[in-house]
Automatic annotation (TrEMBL), chain A:
Biological processes, Gene Ontology terms: regulation of cell shape
Name of the protein this chain belongs to: Rod shape-determining protein MreD
Keyword Transmembrane helix (UniProt): yes
Pfam families xref list: MreD
Automatic annotation (TrEMBL), chain B:
Ranges annotated as spanning the membrane: 9-27
Name of protein: Cell shape-determining protein MreC
InterPro entries cross-referenced by the UniProt entry: Cell/Rod_1 (IPR042177), Cell/Rod_MreC_2 (IPR042175), MreC (IPR007221), MreC_beta-barrel_core (IPR055342)
Presence of keyword Cytoplasm: no
Organism, as annotated: Virgibacillus massiliensis
Gene of this entry: mreC
Coiled-coil stretches: 78-112
Gene Ontology BP, a term: regulation of cell shape
Length: 179, 291
């Protein structure tokens, strides 16, 4: 039963992403800055750092699944979020083996992963033709505000989830087979 | 170790191939969503509805209080308007009768009228967090009679069209996300003559719709004129307000002129929308482009 917690939380966060943008006052959306919530990705970073052991790849699996769901529900262009989330969570998972999991490492990996994931999404959308924003403009109007606002979410989440995730990881992954 | 490296590279390559295949699959012209997509859309829509319910309840209460505060002021204005309306009602009555008579003479039934439509009320549930994709989800789907390419309006004017209906939810593409593949045939109506054109997309810099004037007329468009849908495209009914002309500029080749049109409806603060089910059913094949 406890194994269902993670997918449920991820699902809830994903639903909130969409509802939040609808409920926030319109003035936030009309200004020039494009703030994209990547809360699912932030939570996946936590899973990669604190839940997963070195040989398990639950975070990457969840990244694949929920990336695809985001694509289906919110963008209709399949595969973009799935690929970028999974790839970058895989990178974060790889880097965490080298570093000890504490708050600074989390912030560092979170920022790097998030920025690269958003850049990957930008590049794919650019190739597909959904956006034609120039690189410089993208940096200032989307990447920076997005990373900063998601960093707030990352910091807010830290005290709540770290202990829980570590405990669940110890409990559930001690005997399980690596995937 | 080298085997592991190779395996890793291999997986990333396969992932890339899957990515390209998926994008290709989703970008081709699709009439319908696959069953899996519909199922996921409906499930997420259901969850969004649950989250929405208490929040809506609270915002309703707050909204009611605000309404009370404004009541006195509004009441005064409304009384003034009411006096004006009395004259108008009489005029409308006359026109309606006349219209009916003329229609009877031409032996047209009511359903032939391009202006007629069946409204489907819906609530906006969520907006895509990916800001480059201007789309919202509404809580009505195929079960309620929503079909692809139907126009979506608010009382102020048009906001977009239905992109992909699922069973109980549908995604709506907003006007701000329109491109040359989603054109609306529009018209500026004035005494004596009409100017026809196409709304061909949204210009992000000026935050206005691009209205290309097809038919060159002797008189120029002026600022503040209202662009409405013409109903000629066979998808949207006639007479839905689209926006006001803000500026008229020559297009990039200098051959035709385009008008920058400010959308009548606020695209960023939408709660209640009406899906417009056009009463006249022309051949649906034609409606593909949403012209």
């Amino acid at each position: 039963m406890k194994r269902l917690y993670l997918p449920l939380i991820l699902f809830l966060i994903m639903v909130l992403e969409g509802v939040a943008l609808e409920l926030l006052p319109g003035s936030l959306l009309t200004n020039d800055l494009l703030i994209v919530p990547h809360w699912v990705f932030i939570f996946l970073v936590y899973i990669a750092i604190f839940y997963d052991k070195d040989r398990t790849y639950f975070s990457v699996m969840y990244a694949l699944i929920f990336g695809l769901v985001i694509d289906i529900v919110y963008t209709e262009v399949l595969g973009v979020y799935m690929f970028s989330y999974a790839l970058l969570i895989y990178v974060v998972h790889g880097l965490k083996k080298l570093l000890h999991g504490n708050i600074f490492v989390t912030i560092l990996l979170g920022i790097v992963g998030l920025a690269l994931a958003d850049v990957a999404i930008y590049l794919i959308y650019m190739v597909v033709g959904i956006t034609d924003v120039a690189w410089k403009e993208y940096l200032s109007i989307r990447l920076l505000p997005t990373v900063l606002s998601n960093l707030v979410f990352l910091l807010a989440l830290y005290p709540i989830v770290v202990k829980k995730l570590t405990a669940w990881g110890r409990e559930q992954l001690a005997r399980s087979n690596p995937i | 170790m080298s085997f592991l490296r190779k395996k890793r590279l291999f997986i990333i390559l396969i992932g890339f191939i899957i990515l390209v295949a998926l994008i290709g699959f989703s970008l081709r012209d699709r009439d319908n969503l696959t069953g899996v997509e519909e199922f996921i859309n409906d499930t997420v829509g259901w969850a969004q509805g649950i989250i929405h319910a208490p929040i809506n309840f609270i915002t309703d209460i707050v909204g009611n209080m605000d309404d009370f505060k404004d009541t006195y002021k509004e009441n005064r204005i409304l009384k003034e308007k009411l006096a004006e309306y009395k004259g108008l009602i009489y005029e409308v009555q006359e026109l309606k009768e006349e219209n009916e008579d003329l229609r009877n003479n031409l032996e047209l039934t009511d359903s032939d009228n391009m202006r007629n439509y069946n409204p489907i009320q819906a609530t906006v549930m969520s907006r895509s967090p990916e800001r480059w994709i201007e789309q919202v989800t509404i809580n009505k789907g195929k079960k309620d009679g929503v079909e692809a390419n139907m126009a979506v309006i608010t009382p102020e004017g048009m906001v977009g069209k239905v992109l992909a209906p699922s069973q109980s939810t549908s995604t709506v593409q907003l006007l701000t996300g329109f491109d040359q593949f989603n054109r609306i045939s529009g018209t500026v109506s004035r005494d004596g003559q009409e100017i026809f054109g196409m709304v061909e997309g949204f210009d992000k810099e000026t935050e206005s719709l691009i209205f290309r004037i097809i038919e060159e007329s002797k008189e120029d468009l002026k600022e503040g004129e209202l662009v409405v849908s013409s109903g000629m495209g066979g998808v949207f009914p006639a007479g839905l307000p689209i926006g006001e002309v803000k500026e008229v500029v020559p297009d990039q080749y200098g051959l035709t002129r385009t008008a920058l049109v400010e959308p009548a409806a606020d695209m960023y603060d939408i709660n209640q929308v009406i899906v417009v089910d056009r009463a006249v059913q022309e051949d649906t094949e034609n409606g593909e482009e949403g012209e």
